[in-house]
Description:
The structure is a homodimer. Chain A is an all-alpha fold. The first copy, chain A, has a single domain, classed as Farnesyl Diphosphate Synthase (Orthogonal Bundle), CATH 1.10.600. The first copy, chain A, contains 15 helices and two strands. Chain A has a two-stranded antiparallel sheet. In chain A, helix 5 (97-107) crosses helix 9 and helix 6 packs antiparallel against helix 7. The termini of chain A are far apart.
Amino acid sequence: MIPSTNFMYRIRPRSNPSTFLHHLNQTLNSFFLPSSGSRSPFSDFASDYQTVDECRRQEIREEESPGSEFDFKAYMLEKIGVVNQALDAAVPLRDPLILHEAMRYSLLSQGKRICPIVCLAACQLVGGDESTALPSACALEMIHAMSLMHDDLPCMDNDDLRRGRPSNHVVFGEHVSVTAGYALLARAFEHIATGTKGVAPGRIVRVVSELARLIGAEGVVAGQVADLKCGGNGQLDMGVEQLEYIHLHKTAALVEASAVAGAVLGGAREEEIERLRRYSRYAGLMFQVVDDVLDVTKSCAELGKTCGKDLVAGKATYRS
Amino acid sequence: MIPSTNFMYRIRPRSNPSTFLHHLNQTLNSFFLPSSGSRSPFSDFASDYQTVDECRRQEIREEESPGSEFDFKAYMLEKIGVVNQALDAAVPLRDPLILHEAMRYSLLSQGKRICPIVCLAACQLVGGDESTALPSACALEMIHAMSLMHDDLPCMDNDDLRRGRPSNHVVFGEHVSVTAGYALLARAFEHIATGTKGVAPGRIVRVVSELARLIGAEGVVAGQVADLKCGGNGQLDMGVEQLEYIHLHKTAALVEASAVAGAVLGGAREEEIERLRRYSRYAGLMFQVVDDVLDVTKSCAELGKTCGKDLVAGKATYRS
């Protein structure tokens, strides 16, 4: 899948080739850049790697030598398959049945699997074996699924539709849904601790610490609370700074955790971890910008979730 | 506090003296045993350590040599102070304020701190330094606080009173309460991973794995779901076996996690861990039996929570 001659990310000589992160960045950029010569809004962090112009030159080189072309879509489909299979095995159907059904309903529903794939790609990027990051990749998807179940609850966004299906609490009831959310969070940490093989225990402890911090009161949860405080108050004139706080915490923190976990498990040096942290944080923010735009430009059927809901709720978004 | 001549638990020569677990057991036993000559309902597991008769002889020896008497109440008060101080530092008041206020409201409210103290005592019992287990002890209380907030939610037990004060969701709203619960759970794992010092990382990974398993879909959450399934259905004729399943999971699993975490961090051998696992599981079950009896024999003011609620909800208890 990955051309062996492509050393796009020259972090250190032993780095394995991986163009996934570059292509993810380009996919996000493509929503905003009319021509490849424009400066990316993320040029500050991108300068750690390549400028947009350099990316374009790289693209041209790839186009000129089709044998080494990176097939982004095929890569994503392959990794989604790997992750889905691992998720299915990580949360098997067992007693209590209704609890595990609720956990699996949200966990195995059709999703982009961005966080798990960022984790696997970051591990590979720094020269690690992808398999060492697979349990953490699954854990990230468990946490993501939990946060979506949580967001949809009647006491939160009160959303009945998620990934093209009725939300978890609509199917299983609010009490089972809240409980299954806690169970997924606990299972995520258990899976990292028991499933990660071939890595020094100190690195596993580091992953637990990074992940727990970034999803907790300093990360995802902080963003959720700030978002709730603004929701429905018609704060459409909220400053970009405040909006950025919400999305850096609510969305980007999990992408950051994904890249950092993969890098740590792949054996990255501290400066490599920090570069990937910076990259992934802003890629996560960009993901949210795209999501906000899609929320008002796409139909519910295309999105698989209730569209225009932020507008209805009077929430500030990048679109507003 | 602990008499240096008392080697009650002769697990191995290097064991430090600790009579806490023995006294905890006796405190629980005292609810049921009219005379010290009776057999404990937990005699099977107790035989790993001492029979009730042996305990009584030990008591007599202690009474005869008052200089070495173990002051259970003073020990508990001292450890509660240590734990409370550590909890206060572990979850400081910071932004977002409402989130941290909600976390601290439940975490720092007056509680028995049984789980943290079992953790510290187990660590000391196997020869470890109590300070190595303090972050895990705090994590256990965070998880316990989270589970109480969760239990009290309108979609769960819908309880307005907890530890003598309005429940968390009554004060902060359901949305903040659910979110603060997730944040406490995440903080628990972060605190174990970042706060534990002087222990091989492999043992920290083991604690994360044990704790996550015992509070998740195989432990506490499984018990909560089984309890909810039975609640309000008037299943007062439920068999003891089913009732035991609920309480072994909902209550005893966290006590088990406490003892196992302390033992692992204290450097226990595998057979010592398994003995403490067995002891603590049944001590936890006994705790629930006592709780069920108190629920119908004590007033709300004495309990600091809504009393008789299981009876009203039509839930089966050991009393029924």
